[in-house]
Amino acid sequence: MPPDPGAGPVQQHVGTVEKARRRGLGTALTAAQVHDARARGCRTASLQSTQMAERVYAAVGFRDLGQILEYVPGKGPVMSEVRIAVGDADTGLAERLDQEISAFNAAVTGHHDGRMLSVSVRGDDGDLHAGLYGWTWGGCGYIDLLWVRDDQRGSGLGARLLAAAEAEIRQRGCDRVALNTHSFQAPGFYARFGYRECGRTPGYPHGHDDIHLLKLLG
Predict the structure, then answer these.
(1) Domains of the chain, CATH where assigned
(2) pTM of the predicted model, to two decimals?
């Protein structure tokens, strides 16, 4: 089965003996496999084909996604097939994109000081009561996630998390902190601690806004 969810089987070998060719058997075989993939809940099916067999696959709805020339050291340009996969979670994709974009950003800006930031509050049993996650880079701090468990809200844990994060961000030489919060989440909470709106994305999600906040550290 294919590695990405929702994708149908990749055909490895489909063929007919010479005396049975040109009778539509290859098309029928391919159509049957597509029907089976659909019955299993797959949204897409993919395969690799020679130019000689393109007509067979086109007859049942396959479309050419094209080829690209890829440069391989020591070999020069070689033909490489590409495939576009659309789905939900893709294991490892977010981490790879983060690595690539972070490397690009550091190379362009000259800021190579990116560090992750985490603050957690746990009970005696190790259970998470509250947590904060973000990063620092280029003289700025960013708070990506801040959460307090339902039964711990109103106890001041959110304020303590934020204060601890700001202290660490300041210690790392940063002079500002940025974050996003939805209009139905905690804009009032952050306003009490000096965060000011610097922009918003209206209608994300529908009926609400995504609010961009900034605080300059004294």
Answers:
(1) 18-81 (no CATH), 94-216 (3.40.630.30)
(2) 0.65
